[in-house]
Amino acid sequence: xxxxxxxxxxxxxxxxxxxxxxxRSLTVxxxxxxxxxxxxxxxxxxxxxxxxxxxxxxNVNKLNxxxxxxxxxxxxxxxxxxxxxxxxxxxxxxxxxxxMLRIVSQKHRSxxxxxxxxxxxxxxxxQEALKPAPIRRKxxxxxxxxxxxxxxxxxxxxIKSERAEKDWRQ
Length: 170
Prior knowledge:
Layout: E1 31-33, E2 39-41, E3 45-50, H1 59-62, E4 66-72, H2 81-90, E5 100-105, H3 111-130, H4 143-165
Antiparallel strand pairs: 1-2, 3-4, 4-5
């Protein structure tokens, strides 16, 4: 591999991929699997960072460790129309008015850990939204339970009718 313009080896730990242009082609896009036959690429996600209010000591005031993941559900090429409709209806409370799904993570001290946590949460939410609802089977009320209910109703009725028969003016 060639050395960068400043003469250092860009494969060294600590180099940022967005600063070293020749490393951009080396990055492998991670796929997020949300169903057996459906996965979305990380290039469909938008990551934003901001200052966190969580743990971190002095780093809370200096570093942007809070991560917000935005996912455009309606504009995703990886999802079918039926999947998009299902996600939009089940996760409507987490959507903004433009149809962007928003996940925030700030429970860890490092930005990378919060990024991983936010992507995992997004994966869980999408998997739950795409899981088909179980088929409801009709059940019959047991005969003994029905009879107990009717006996209780008769008992309460007798108690109330006995109250009404008394003359309270005496």
